[in-house]
């Protein structure tokens, strides 16, 4: 029993990147109201699609407005068979903060986007979400790294 516990804990870990690391991957940061949320669980990943209404552009083109569909994908921790059938343990490093799985329609969140086009009908990649309570800390961090 003592040996199983560390394996169980190891298999269930998700490692979240620091905000500073995620900023290097981010093209724009938005303050957005969450509309519909669709989750698509898969064997080794979870995909969530969000309908987001842009309330404010924190970083990126000031011309962004309207509603966008953003897609967040996260590798799931666990034990999975490799090509030879051996069991491997995976503790993924993810860009998300954990907030991505807790937002509900009507919530306002800080949204990190990897790229966004001028056509709102094309889905964009969501890197991370942070709760609205982190807005002041994010603005300070952006100022420290030379952002707005």
Description:
This protein has 148 residues and is α+β, with helices and mostly antiparallel strands. The protein has one domain (11-144): OB fold (Dihydrolipoamide Acetyltransferase, E2P) (Beta Barrel), CATH 2.40.50. 16% of the residues lie in helices and 43% in strands. The protein has helices at residues 4-11, 19-23, 135-144; strands at 15-16, 28-41, 45-59, 67-75, 78-81, 87-90, 93-94, 108-113, 124-131. The strands form three sheets. The protein has a five-stranded mixed β-barrel with strand order 2-3-4-9-8. Strands 1-7 form a two-stranded parallel ribbon. Strands 5-6 form a two-stranded antiparallel ribbon. A hairpin with a 3-residue loop joins strand 2 (28-41) and strand 3 (45-59).
Topology of this structure?
Blueprint (H helix, E strand, L loop, with lengths): L3 H8 L3 E2 L2 H5 L4 E14 L3 E15 L7 E9 L2 E4 L5 E4 L2 E2 L13 E6 L10 E8 L3 H10 L4
Parallel strand pairs: 1-7, 4-9
Antiparallel strand pairs: 2-3, 2-8, 3-4, 5-6, 8-9
**Rg for CA atoms:** 17 Å
> Biggest sheet, in brief?
5 strands, mixed, barrel
Low-confidence regions = 1-11
Helix content: 10-25%
What is the CATH topology assignment?
OB fold (Dihydrolipoamide Acetyltransferase, E2P)
- What is the H/E string? HEHEEEEEEEEH
- With helices defined by DSSP (H or I, 4 residues minimum), what is the helix count? 3
Q: How many strand elements?
A: 9
From the helix content, strand content and strand pairing, which structural class follows? alpha+beta
What share of the residues does DSSP label as strand, in percent?
Answer: 35-45%
Shape: globular
What is the CATH first-level class name?
Mainly Beta
* Spatial strand order of the main sheet: 2-3-4-9-8
**What does the average pLDDT come to?**
82
- What is the CATH-assigned architecture? Beta Barrel
User: Ends: how far apart?
Assistant: 53 Å
Overall number of domains = 1
